[in-house]
């Protein structure tokens, strides 16, 4: 298919028509920049100025679509105009072609045209003055500067401002995109944190409720049923309290903890007591001392989730919980009896191990969980930030 030229802008057509009509009006009134007696006038035909005027006006629709071609044709028309009586409108239209060639042309044209017009201005002023030995020869350079250099410099200045505005717009869009990406990542991270917190708080209570409700339904013994219901009630109340605490955290303004405080390692005793009430034989050896709040929360949640997993999966035997502070690190270790092939008493989703690993990774620590002989061992090493109290 033949390549079609882009349609000219409506404003460019208006400039062409307006310039042509204005030039014809001045010609009809006999207004010319050069008298017929001027030695430069070689074409004395009365209609001579209309030819370069018409050609220059015809170049105006090309000022945006083909600015370089319009400037070249316009230069030829202006050269022809210099040997006629001339038209002021032709010169004005040509200055617009120079301006448009710099503003709408290629980057190479935008760089070269101001330099070329500048050199022509200097040469056009110095050479005639030197040859004629008359300072008035400099006026030729001034005329070239007004007709060519001034519009070229103006076009370059406007183009620089336009490019700077476009670059600023692109930077603003990029900044907005990065801000949106940061917001999306922050929302995702907050959702993951909330899911991890909710799982760690509620999973243990629900697991104990599931185990003891199963025992109450399967055993036809009033005493056992009463004990199971007591444990179910205790875990239901504790789970409800944890849910209220989480809702309190979400409702509190940033920086205000109020009554919705995070659990601390001082609460490990109560946590172990609840695990014992759920049927686990648990021993606690806590020699951690005072630790930073983030480490304290992570350690508490790791112990909580480990006890929940022991309640679901551990074989009969003793569960040992130990916390030790060594070389600027807090080591959390939970071991429970393990027999390969045993099916869990309560179904699990596997998110507990993922949550514990994420908590350790967020603090720059390490996490391991796996079978070691007849025990299932969970071990997390959490670094303490420098300057924390020992």
Secondary structure category: alpha+beta
The span between the termini is 81 Å
Number of helices: 10
Rg estimate, integer Å: 44 Å
Largest beta sheet, briefly? Answer: 5 strands, mixed
Q: Give the helices and strands as they follow along the chain.
A: HHHHHHHHEHEEHEE
> How are the strands of the largest sheet arranged?
1-2-3-5-4
Low-confidence stretches: 255-260, 386-390
How much β-strand is present in the residues?
Answer: 5-15%
In total, the number of domains comes to 2
Q: Label the overall shape.
A: rod-shaped
Question: How would you describe the overall organization of this protein?
Answer:
The structure is a single chain. The chain is an alpha+beta fold and 390 residues long. It folds into two domains: 165 residues, no CATH class; 127 residues, Histidine kinase-like ATPase, C-terminal domain (Heat Shock Protein 90), CATH 3.30.565. It has ten helices and five strands. A five-stranded mixed β-sheet has the order 1-2-3-5-4, covered by helices on one side. Helix 9 links the parallel strand 1 and strand 2. Helix 6 packs antiparallel against helix 7 and helix 6 crosses helix 9. The longest helix has 81 residues. It is rod-shaped and about 130 Å long. The two termini are 81 Å apart.
Keywords, please?
alpha+beta, disordered C terminus, Heat Shock Protein 90, 5-stranded mixed sheet, 5 strands, 390 residues
Outline the secondary-structure elements.
Blueprint: H1 10-29, H2 50-59, H3 67-81, H4 88-104, H5 107-132, H6 138-218, H7 222-251, H8 268-277, E1 281-287, H9 293-313, E2 318-326, E3 329-337, H10 351-362, E4 366-372, E5 375-383
Parallel strand pairs: 1-2
Antiparallel strand pairs: 2-3, 3-5, 4-5
Helix pairs in contact: 1-2, 1-4, 2-3, 2-4, 3-4, 4-5, 4-6, 5-6, 6-7, 6-9, 8-9, 9-10
């Amino acid at each position: 298919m033949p390549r079609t030229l882009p349609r000219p802008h409506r404003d460019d057509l208006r400039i062409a028509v307006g310039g042509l009509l204005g030039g014809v009006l001045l010609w009809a009134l006999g207004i010319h920049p050069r008298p017929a007696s001027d030695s430069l006038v070689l074409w004395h035909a009365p209609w001579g100025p209309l030819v370069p005027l018409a050609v220059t006006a015809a170049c105006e629709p090309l000022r945006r679509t083909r600015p370089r071609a319009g400037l070249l044709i316009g230069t030829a028309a202006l050269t022809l105009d210099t040997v006629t009586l001339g038209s002021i409108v032709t010169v004005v239209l040509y200055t617009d072609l120079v301006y448009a060639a710099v503003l709408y042309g290629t980057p190479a044209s935008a760089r070269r045209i101001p330099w070329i017009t500048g050199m022509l201005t200097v040469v056009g002023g110095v050479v005639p003055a030197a040859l004629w030995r008359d300072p008035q020869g400099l006026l030729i350079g001034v005329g070239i500067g007004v007709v060519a250099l001034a519009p070229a410099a103006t076009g370059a200045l406007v183009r620089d401002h336009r490019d700077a505005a476009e670059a600023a717009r692109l930077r603003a869009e990029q900044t907005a995109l990065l801000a949106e990406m940061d917001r999306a990542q922050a929302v995702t991270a907050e959702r993951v944190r909330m899911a991890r917190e909710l799982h760690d708080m509620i999973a243990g209570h629900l697991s104990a409720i599931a185990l003891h409700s199963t025992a109450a339904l399967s055993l036809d013994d009033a005493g056992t049923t009463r004990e199971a219901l007591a444990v179910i009630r205790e875990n239901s109340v504790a789970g409800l309290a944890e849910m209220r605490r989480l809702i309190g955290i979400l409702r509190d303004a940033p920086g205000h903890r109020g009554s919705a405080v995070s659990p601390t390692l001082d609460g490990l005793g109560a946590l172990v007591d609840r695990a014992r009430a759920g049927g686990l034989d648990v021993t606690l050896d806590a020699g951690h001392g005072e630790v930073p709040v983030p480490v304290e929360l992570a350690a508490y949640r790791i112990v909580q989730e480990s006890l929940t997993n022991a309640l679901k999966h551990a074989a009969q035997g003793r569960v040992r919980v130990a916390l030790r502070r060594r070389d600027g690190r807090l080591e959390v270790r939970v071991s429970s009896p393990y027999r390969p092939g045993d099916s869990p008493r309560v179904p699990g989703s596997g998110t507990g191990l993922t949550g514990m690993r994420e908590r350790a990774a967020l603090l720059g620590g390490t996490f391991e969980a796996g079978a070691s002989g007849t025990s299932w061992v969970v071990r997390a090493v959490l670094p303490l930030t420098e300057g924390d109290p020992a």
